Amino acid sequence: MAAEAAVIRCAAMLAAAMTIAAVPASAQTNAPNPHGAKIDCSDASNAAGADCAKDGSDTKGGSGASQTGVVFLPALIVDLFPNPVAPPAPMPTPRPEPATPPANNQAGPPPSGPIVSPTDLIAVQPPRAVVGDFVPDEVLVTVDGDAGAVQQIAASFGLQVRSQRQSRLLGTTLVRFGIPDGRPVGVVLAQLAADGRTQRREPNHVYSLQQAASIVNYAFERIALDSKQASGENVRIAVIDTGIDDSNPALSGVIAGQFDAMPDVPIEKRDHGTSVDGLIAGVGALEGMAPGARIYHARAFEGGKSTMDVILSALDWAASQDVRIINMSFVGPKNDLLGVACSNARALGIMLVAAAGNNGPKAPYGYPAAFDGVIAVTATDARDGLMPQANRGAYVFISAPGVEMVAPSGAGSDVVTGTSFAAAIVTGAIANLIHAAPDRSADGIEKALAATARDLGPKGRDNDFGYGLLDIKAAESAKD
pLDDT for 331-352, tens place per residue? Predict the structure, then answer.
């Protein structure tokens, strides 16, 4: 009996061992999960408050070294990125698509591919050195894809979708992403380059109106335009500027349409835009260069400032109004999105006139004036002397009066100075040329302005005056 009992005990022990071996590994302990911090990090709602990813482990794929497919990432470049990134590799390696989309991606994963964790994305470019003033927590991106793709990119890179729209001049979807975690703009731009759906990635640069601090309008005489014969009748002109005082008598019947590119910002200043519109096409005592022209005014500035996103919205609206000229009396840093928009506007046959800038002879080039196809205008005084504050450079195209001129303003009238107002003079002068010969091309007008300008300064085109002082009478007679 003893032998029989021993055999029975042995069989029972063997059966118990086989039962234990058959239980999955995840069920071998009832103890609390030893990696609770990592689980917090996998939840987007808790990650900000948890001490996440300090050991370089994956923050979205679960926890535990025994989990299949887990990749532990070294904590590299922690001074630039809020989460660790993978070692350098030619392209990011996407992880398998999760069973359920992240909570902050309401649109769900689009057909274009799986969601990629920010920790798996590699900055395929070094962090960009961003030049000029810009919004510190935003980037502008053109995206090849639908709204779902935009939401997926936002989720993958830890960004917020602050606005998105289809841009006519850019020919694609323009998205304004917010950076909620304090990463530098240059770092985010480099990170976004890893996603092939992002076509262009730029800072949301800040631009400034070009009015210098400050008598009868001497511009007619200086540019050889007979004020009694001046006319821009029915020529459609867009102006991108501040709000305007459309009750000013000088703008009576002048404004054909208005667009507010920043409707959530109250209008406080109207002087600059009123002066620019008045110098172009004002009527009555403060007659502009091209009376009878139709102004389509886009408000895109407040407090003298605007952003790239707002300006692009205004440009798209202007292009949709079938205008012949767009006046841009503002200056900022180079931005490729603005460059593409200007190039495409010019391809539509629209003439672009911009202020060269009031930042002095040692200032960097001012944009959009310095883009190809844009008429960059500097300012001269009643004796054809250069405004001392004017920018200099090879991009300066032509000179026009812009120092101490009387112009309409929000308060009635004022004495104004700046390349902003010289640009308005050139815009009005070009409207006269188009009125006289509606079939004249933008390229033909540009060549005529260059060929007939009255040389100032060193012989030939120079960095101060460009080709020289605008001569509208000679330009009108010039052949294309």
Answer: 999 999 999 999 999 999 999 9
